[in-house]
């Protein structure tokens, strides 16, 4: 009898031990799954590294974080660096940069950040997997930007910044001269997922790009001969907006499934060719115009003073450029190239590449001035 009791006790202890081990492993697996979900979001957007702490005297830790999302492509990396530098030096807010790039650029970006005055910034490098865009874009000989995957990063903001309720997106061809906190505090109307700068917000933005139609209304971006576009009942004369700088309410963005809506119109364009054949701007603009038709707030136009990358930018006075909160070199001519307007303003924030891979392109008469 006692021998049988001993066997029962041993069996019970074995079962208890087994259950404890099983419970421990389950907790470990649950933790692992939680970490992977929170870090990765979905396949294709993987964080590479994260610098969590800026110097204590740089920001007030009690301040709300200001997430700024910006892309970093290898051939335009100097633009990203200059934009980040201008933001960082014109604010004392608690800014964290989400820098979206491709795997082969990450090391170059990291070395540039760590060897310059930007080594103290808070940032996260996120790899963008081009597989996300399969079946959603097509190559157009006259629309080179359509094959640049990073230009679509703005469509995936809630995944890039999963824990934020609000974020700023901006292109890499900008310089910020105001406090980014003011842009972040742009009020959005109830039910609006984003705030853009409209192309009709001032006379100076009404420009016509040669061979590209009007760049300030919907007909410059969408093919109104297509039945699917006509069925949307959007007025062709509706003022368009520029998606190179915007503030997003990510709670609303997720609630309205904005990313899914954008992907839907990308796929339909591949199948039916819905965009204007003389597309007035970025390939990312048409789906945004459709999804946000009469459903977006506006930002102060001085927070997106654009067309500095076209001939129109030469019309601005130095006083006006100095007063702008954000300068945007959208267009063919970039400030790291030869012919853009007000390159001296941009160059003030440029940090030379320590690896020597990226260099400014200047006329021979200017070379001595940029060393």
Automatic annotation (TrEMBL):
Cellular component aspect of the GO annotation: Golgi apparatus; membrane
Principal location listed in the UniProt entry: membrane
GO molecular function terms listed in the Swiss-Prot or TrEMBL record: UDP-glycosyltransferase activity
Keywords: Glycoprotein, Glycosyltransferase, Membrane, Signal-anchor, Transferase, Transmembrane, Transmembrane helix
Membrane association type: Single-pass type II membrane protein
Localisation: Membrane
Keyword tRNA-binding: no
Record keyword Membrane present: yes
Family named by the database record: Belongs to the glycosyltransferase 8 family.
Name recorded for this polypeptide: Glycosyltransferase 8 domain-containing protein 1
